[in-house]
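Changelog excerpt

This revision adds worked examples to the README so contributors can see how folded entries look when concatenated. The first example is reproduced verbatim below.
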Amino acid sequence: MTTQDVSALLDGLEPALRAAANKVLRHAYGPDGMPWGTRIHHAEDLAVQVADRLTRLTLELGLEQQAQRPLPAALRACPCCGQPVRDKPPRPRRLRTSAGDIAWRQPQAYCTRCRRAFSPPGPEPGT
């Protein structure tokens, strides 16, 4: 995704992000929002922690949604012999990202010819 694509995506998300920010403020401070006299560093600490949590949740939900879809044909073959593979139950996995550790269930496959279990290429931090 290019910087221009991300910028357009964020522009489109602005109304949802604004609504989420309002909801956070209501939950944190009550129906009137942030009271007069609130120190900016307290508000900033909350905002940073909310952003971190949203980042991890977005990554976890995205990976879970991806894992629930069928594997593309290119990933349905053994990386060693090229033969079709059988699905195995997904395995719980923790992944370290720049936003912190996230948890997801990684799809797995098994090649009966090579007698080898493997996971399709998954997300790597920073890619």
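The second example, added in the same revision:
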Amino acid sequence: MSATVSETIDIIENAPIPTWFRIGGRADRLSRPRDAGELSRVLDAAGGEVRVLGDGANLLVDDDGIDGVVVELSAPAFTDVQIDARAGTIRVGAGAKLPQLIHAATKAGLAGLEVLGGIPATLGGAIVMNAGGAYGQIADVIARVHGIDRAGGRVTLERKDIAFGYRHSGLNHLILTHAELVLPAGDPEQLRRRLLEIMEFKKKSQPMKENSAGCCFKNPTLAGDVEGLGAKGQRVSAGMVIDRSRLKGLAIGGASVSPVHANFIVTAEGASARSVIDLMDEVTRRVKERFGVELEREVVVWKRGGK
């Protein structure tokens, strides 16, 4: 069922929100604008209060669903990829899938994205959370971003004006529409081999075939010296901290801490969004109790009345 906000904007009601957990509620209203102009009109109609749905890879939607308007940038205007291998640049829509972009850049002999192999996301989502891992981060190749602010105004930001940090960009006030990347030249075959190596490592060390949202918690920075973990100011692996808290296999409902990698919560039949939320809270509580370390969620949880 759909209700038309204006002559050119369609809103889908009671829309499913696909996430990598394969569970969770629905959106009261969902819009897939066809271009930036229509996106501005959706923002105006919603009073600027929208959530942006990317690939659903690090997202959990509460069982009761969410209010407001969800925007999905899946139209061709937001997924286009323009590669200039000679200049070492890529202009790409925020709705483009990161894995496909990585393969396209590698094939074109442009280096820097292959280090993000195995990270499921749209480009916009990857930029907003500054996606990365042990091998690099998306911020390393960003030249500038283009987006729309909550009032519907067009915004362009240069790399130097973006507050990139660990899993942070400071761009949550914008809805990204495109980005421009600058990448050094590389040998396509060597880049392909490097990508395959990274993917193979992740397949062996992460539960890639399970329903999960990837890493559940950000790697914490120790507030003080912690015996067995590290020194004050050191950023340590959340997976290691959870593992040393002996929480692998801990389960609530159909959600459990993966025995393969402790920073992954996986879901099975019977799982609900509430069981995942309760398990994340329990892991946080036990790690705090065991080591005095505060874990911060990397998984985004959408609920009615706000995130």
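Reviewer comment on example two: Residues 91 and 180 are 4 Å apart (CA to CA). The longest helix spans residues 273-291.
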